Structures are given as structure tokens and as C-alpha cells.
Amino acid sequence: MxxxxxxxxxxxxxxLALLYERxxxxxxxxxxxxxxxxxxxxxxxxxxxxxxxxxxxxxxLIVPRETERAGRRPERTVYAITEAGRVEFLDxxxxxxxxxxxxxxxxxxxxxxxxxLPPSEALSLLKERIQLxxxxxSRVRGGLAQGRALGVPRLFLIEHEYxxxxxxxxxxxVHALVKEIEAGTIEGLHLWELFHSWTEPxxxxxxxxxxxxxxx
Amino acid sequence: MxxxxxxxxxxxxxxLALLYERxxxxxxxxxxxxxxxxxxxxxxxxxxxxxxxxxxxxxxLIVPRETERAGRRPERTVYAITEAGRVEFLDxxxxxxxxxxxxxxxxxxxxxxxxxLPPSEALSLLKERIQLxxxxxSRVRGGLAQGRALGVPRLFLIEHEYxxxxxxxxxxxVHALVKEIEAGTIEGLHLWELFHSWTEPxxxxxxxxxxxxxxx
DNA sequence: TCTCGTTTAGTCGATATCGACTATACAGTC
DNA sequence: GACTGTATAGTCGATATCGACTAAACGAGA
Lengths: 216, 216
Hints:
Oligomer: homodimer
Shape of chain A: elongated
Largest sheet of chain A: 2 strands, antiparallel
Helix content of chain A: 55-70%
Number of helices of chain A: 8
Strand content of chain A: 5-15%
Number of strands of chain A: 2
């Protein structure tokens, strides 16, 4: 099981990583993450960033260094990592690399209830998904190519290669599923069709009355 | 982009799915989900369930039907889905099946900062991950086999096949990464080693003093 | 020099989430 | 017939999260 982190949001890991390099103010963290494409691997919201930074400070993992003022811009607090912060960063990172965490992808939730859709509809939705997945794949590929063109070593783009591998697996898997549904080789298909051939119209009828009844 | 759902927790989808079949009280939803293995695809916490059920009721997607009392047990509220609930369920489900959502797997976050660990350590952590992934794979396989043995049609276990495909891709990908690091064919490796060969001992030294300084 | 869009830099409040805690009933067993 | 563990059925408070909103500074063009 994953250790409970003092600041659980993975954005905190990114903040620690950035401050490991050098002190920074929050806004600079955002721009740096964007420049390096790290906002693709760690969810970055402004509001979360500021609360994460506050929490890290409370926990003594980072400390405010100075408050600068560039021109007549509002002042910015520059933060630095502490020794405790370095320890937490490395410990967390090791765990993330070593231990596969149980996750709940949205598509898995969708698949869980796939049988609630009539087979023909499921089929066309899955086909549309393939198209959308391919679009995403080419965008990730594009990002990788651009990074390489800029001379970024592969080591620093490795997470996008991982993402690509997952997306490619998904597209192939969905493709295979589509083929199986079309070929009728998926076990339970007959029941699935039969079920929807009755309940579809009936359910719609009943649900209208039912809806009324239930809402009063 | 994903539509904002009135009750965003995917557990709400599961609740709607269950009530689509028949009215139930919350505790029964938990046991039913467990029996069917749906707690592997949708994160199920007691406390979340109750707040989700409340929110669904406020939104008019479900309604309390009756409060039963089995024996002298505390009373339980049985809920039923409304027409609005059926609409929301199907709409949400269609979207989940059709549109790939951007997600942030923990491992991707870890990989983003892999270079912060010395290569030799990264290597051994990745090797441990392979082992742990294989353990998880055999557990998922076991679950699938058990489901089939109980006569559950594949259609209702499809999400586990998806999970398996992702896990297998990950294990293969990590394996390939390990090989590349070992072979030294990963671009940036030389710099990576060089960097850690200085900064490792220095960083530890400096960070001790540094930590003091920063903490006062 | 006016103004308008963009970049810089955040704040705030409403919700969502989750772990820890509570409490009764029943089944088995000594 | 007392005792204990497990299944049943939740509650509550502390945090976390996120979208919507704010607001100054600056550059470019009219």
C-alpha cells in the first residue's frame, strides 16, 4: 500500500522536484513545468498549487526565502526546499517508481457497465473512441518529436513514451473488442442482444410512468 | 472535454447502474458491488458512498423509497432511480465509453522525475516494480479465472481484461526500459551518471548544512 | 496617449473525499 | 449464559480540490 504523504497531491512532488534544483516562486513553478511538459504527467491547477505550497510550508518541507518584487509587479514569495523536503521527495519518488498503485481509470468504470448499452450502440461508441485515441496518440507523438528536435535527451521525455505505450495498447485492445463484438464471438452477446431487444422499448415506456411515480 | 456531472464521483455511476436494476439500500450496494467485483473498477469507500447517495438524492437522480427494518437492526433507506437518473446514467456511460479522458497515473509522475535518482538505484527500483507488477497480473488473472469458473459471461468481466492488457503493457515497457539502461543505450545516460557521481555525495553533505540554514 | 488583449500572479468559497470512529445484532463457543 | 469476533450499517470532522473570480503591468496598435 502507498504510504500516506504529508501533502498527498502529486503536484507536491513536482514542487519539491523543482525546488530541489533551485529556489523559485509559485508562478515560476507553473511556467517551468509547462516548458518541460511536466503538466502532462502531474495535474497542475493554480489553486491546487497555492494550497500545496502552503501545506508544504506548514509541514516544514519548504521554506519561504524572500519576497521579491520585479518592477512594480505584486510581490512574490520565493521558496526553497529543506532537508526534510529532500528526504520526502526522494522517499516518495522511490515509492512511485517501485510500487504499482491500484488505479481506477475512467474507461474501466465505463467498461464495467457496458452491458447497460445495447450492443449496436456500444459498438459505434467504441469505434468513435478508436478515432479519438488515435488523435491523442498523434498529439503525444508530436510532443515527443518536438522535444527531441529541441535536443531534450530521451531520459527527460521517458514518461511520454510510457503514456504512448499505454495509449497504443488501449487502441489495440478496443479494436480487438470491436472485432469480437462484430464477429459475435464475445460470450454473452446473444443474451446481451436479447435483453436489449425487450427491455429497450419497455424500459423507456415504464421509466416514463415510473419517473412520475417516483417523483411524486 | 468531459462534461461536468452533477455528482462527479464515478461511484455515483455505479449507484445509478445498480438502481437501474432494482431499488436497494446503500449497504446492499456495497455488497453487490463486491460480489460482482465492481469495486475493482470503481473506488468504493463507505463514506463516499453515503455522500454520493445524498448528492444523487438532492439532484433528483434517485429517490428514497421506503425505510425497512430487518429484525431489530437499525433501519435502512431503500433508494430507487428516477427517470432523470436513468438519463444521466446512460449519458454518462456513453461519454465514458466514447471519450478517452486525460489521466495522470502515479507512475507517470514518478517517471517524470526519474533522473533525480542515481541510475543504479532507478534500475533496482524498476526491477522490483516488475516483480510487483507480475504479482498483480497473476491476481487479476486469478480473478478472471474464478469469474469464468462461476459461469460469469466474459461480457461482465471485460473491464478486467482491459486492466490486464494495461498491466501487461506496463511490465513489458518497464522491462524494455531496464534493458536499455543496462545496455547504456538510453540517451542521456552518460550525463545522468556523471551528474549523480558528483552531486550525490556533495548534495548529501550540502543538504545537511543547507537544511540547518534553511530551518534557521 | 488611449485602450485593449495578454501575461503575470494570485484568492476564495463551495464541494468532494477519506480515514477514523461508532454501534447494534447475531453466531459460535467455552 | 457470558463472552467474543464478525457482519451489518452507518456518521463525522478534517482536509483536499477545483472552478470561478480578481487585478495589476505591459506591449502594440490606433
